[in-house]
Amino acid sequence: MEQKGIERVYRDVEFLTSLRPFRNYLNTDSLNKASHYIYESFKQYSDCVSFQEFEAYGNTYRNVLCSINTEKEERIIIGAHYDVAGDTPGADDNASCIAGLLEILRLLYDKKTRHRIDFAAYVLEEPPFFGTEKMGSFIHAKSLYENSVKIKVMISLEMIGFFSDKKNSQQFPLPFMRLFYPDTGNFIGVVGNTFQRKITVRIRDLMRKGSDIPVYSLNAPSIIPGVDFSDHRNFWRFGYNAVMITDTAFYRNPNYHRRTDTIATLDFDRMYSVIKSVAYAVLNL
Asked: Which of 156, 217, 224, 285 suits 277 as a labelling partner, its CA being 20 to 30 A distant?
């Protein structure tokens, strides 16, 4: 069964990385093909699927939203962005996580979770929109806040497919962090802000139970480069608990924002372990 899951995830990454022109903000046709693919994939497992459209630079862009167990009031949001930076295939960044998002839905759609689970595929995470109020995740987080939606935690999936067993393959923003984390890039990280250590550690511990992938956590302020480099940042802005699940991006992956970020560089066995561990955490939060 797990091999079939790995094959599904591979096909999802393969589709997204094969789109041409590349799925950046300039190429709305490719973004629409990606969003349609995600929408149709969501529809296979939920009747509660929609587009959230908004305008930027004179174009219409859209998040893709899906929910299960909608009778529950408090929500867990799982999000990942489907756009890429520039002319890059974006296998790890961030097709790996859209594939992960779809597979988590497949693993959980028929489970009775304690919370409503919302799955969000975001557009415009990458430059030139990163850090602005035109990020798809800002649009989503703001709408939830304005509607007083109760959220237990938002989980942002940001690059989950690149691993290395080579010594010193893992880099860090601050040298002293080598004292607390492995120097081999074969683990996954759970990153939260300084004030949300409890939920960060809880998710880390559940992920450790959910699969055999090594999982480490970090709580740090946003002044540390990379801590807020994804869609969770916009949920922090509205006071929600939010964490990022990541292979640490440019601190490990030399293909970050390059044309070499291809499907051939991903470790699908380990990636699937991450997906299973997140699904287990969501089921047991």
From this structure: 224
Length of the chain, please? Answer: 285
CA distance 9 to 6: 5
Strands 48-56, 116-122: pairing kind: unpaired
Q: Which residues contact 175 (CB under 8 A, 6 or more apart)?
A: none
Cross-strand partners of 245: 157, 190
The string of DSSP letters for 106-165 reads HHHTTS--SSEEEEEEES--STTSTTSTTSHHHHHHHHHHHTT--EEEEEEEE-------
pLDDT tens track for 218-268 = 999 999 999 999 999 999 999 999 999 999 999 999 999 999 999 999 999
pLDDT in tens, 191-227: 999 999 999 999 999 999 999 999 999 999 999 999 9
249, 93 contact by CB (below 8 A)? yes
User: What is 2-284's CATH number, 3.30.870.10, 3.40.630.10, 3.40.50.11540, 3.40.640.10?
Assistant: 3.40.630.10
Instruction: Sketch the domain layout of the chain as residue ranges.
Output: 2-284
- Gyration radius of the chain's alpha carbons: 17
